[in-house]
Amino acid sequence: MKIDIISVVPALLDSPFAHSIMKRAKEKGLLEVNCLNLRDYTKYARAQVDDYQFGGGAGMVMMIEPLVNAIECLQKDTTYDEVIFLTPDGETFDQHIANELSLKTNLLLICGHYKGVDQRLRDHFVTREISIGDYVLSGGELAAAVIVDAVGRLLPGVLNDETSALTDSFQDNLLAPPVYTRPVEFRTWRVPDILLSGNHAKIEQWRHEEAIKRTEERRPDLLEKDDD
Fold first, then answer.
1. Which of 1, 109, 119, 123 has the highest Cβ tally under 10 A?
2. pLDDT 10s digits, 34-53
3. Are 100 and 213 in a shared domain?
4. Are the C-beta atoms of 35 and 26 separated by less than 8 Å?
5. 105, 148 in Cβ contact below 8 A?
6. Range of 35's domain?
7. CA–CA separation, 223 and 156 (whole Å)
8. CA 46 from chain center: how many Å?
9. Do 60 and 115 touch, CB atoms closer than 8 A?
10. Domain of residue 211, CATH code
11. DSSP codes joined into one string, 138-204
């Protein structure tokens, strides 16, 4: 998979993709991530990419021309399955969207900044708009990092144990059950005996029941999705 990211401050994305699972995914050739500086695509003086909004009001707006220059330049070499604008008023990102995007080949993420982007870009170039939550960030870079991480770890071969991703929280509208590791007993707190039994069928049944219990207690709204 190839993911290109257009940003005003691409240096913010240096660290998230240089370590751990994302680093291994890139080294294996399973994931290509390119962080592109929007200022490289502007023709305005002093690398300007924003301007005052028509009609007045507080906050600057990202100009359409540099963004279109960047998109059309990238499209000469890559056909994108989705051109995604990261914005607070987009659809809320969740595991199901991550699963869907992991099946794509090429994605282009546009990081919002300032007061947002000229609406004409959204009308004519963006194919999908995504938010990572009901709050406002200084820019879309952190949101891009979240999406790349959530999507990248789902690619076949990225995780050492591919079944691990399939048992994550939210994959089946359930939160993950409790997990334990050594020692068996610590300060009189003991690992549930069922997990030490070796009976894999009963262990899976216990895990499923605990997942339902935890979801009912903490995120009952997830169970309601199954009823829809």
1. 109
2. 999 999 999 999 999 999 99
3. no
4. no
5. no
6. 2-152
7. 28
8. 32
9. yes
10. 1.10.1270.20
11. SBSHHHHHHHHHHHHTTSTTTSSSTHHHHTSTTTTSSPPPP---S-SEETTEE--GGGGS--HHHHH
